[in-house]
Amino acid sequence: MVRVVRGCSPHAASRAPRSTSASPTCPYCGAENARETPVGPEGRLRLCTVVTNRPPGYRGSLPYGFGVVELTNGLRVITRLTESDPARLRPGLAVTLVVEPLFTDDDGTEVLSYAFAPQPGESATS
Questions:
Q1: Four-residue CA torsion sign, 112, 49, 70, 21
Q2: How far apart are the C-alpha atoms of 66 and 87, rounded to whole Å?
Q3: Which of 64-74 are b and which e, b meaning 16 or more Cβ less than 10 Å from the residue's Cβ?
Q4: Is residue 93 within 8 Å of 122, Cβ to Cβ?
């Protein structure tokens, strides 16, 4: 899975998620013809914590991992993590973007969410 982000040359930065506007505009200055760049799905965990109290409106399971992942192009994203055991999370851990069920809504519809999962074979001491 690959996400697409937008940015323009003067800012040398990208933003995720990309806007839903028809014309690609820079999210920082509004310049037309911003570039769209595919990113991911691999990255490295930079910072992490485990959330044990339900934030307002959150209907997923507890606890859950939460952190900052740096993608291979340098873009950093704040994200939910599939791993919630703090002993299995560490800076530098190789992770991959996944889509997984978060909860089932009142109508019985499964709600999906992005998250990052440790890559197979990665451990807390790798």
A1: positive
A2: 14
A3: bbbbbbbbeee
A4: yes
Query: Can you tell me the distance from the alpha carbon of 15 to that of 100, in angstroms, rounded to the nearest whole number?
Result: 23
Give the whole-angstrom CA distance, residue 116 versus residue 22: 28
Q: E-strand spans in the chain?
A: 3-7, 35-39, 42-51, 64-71, 76-81, 94-104, 110-118
Instruction: Indicate the burial class of 58 (C-beta count within 10 angstroms; 0-12, 13-18, 19 or more).
Output: middle
In which residue ranges of the chain is pLDDT below 70? 1-24, 27-28, 33, 35-36, 123-126
Q: State the pLDDT at residue 9.
A: 62
Contacts of 22 (CB under 8 A, 6+ apart): none
Q: What are the pLDDT digits (tens) for 42-54?
A: 999 999 999 999 9
Residue ranges covered by each domain of the chain = 1-39, 42-118
pLDDT value for 10: 59
Model pLDDT, residue 74? 83
Q: DSSP H helical segments within the chain, as ranges?
A: none
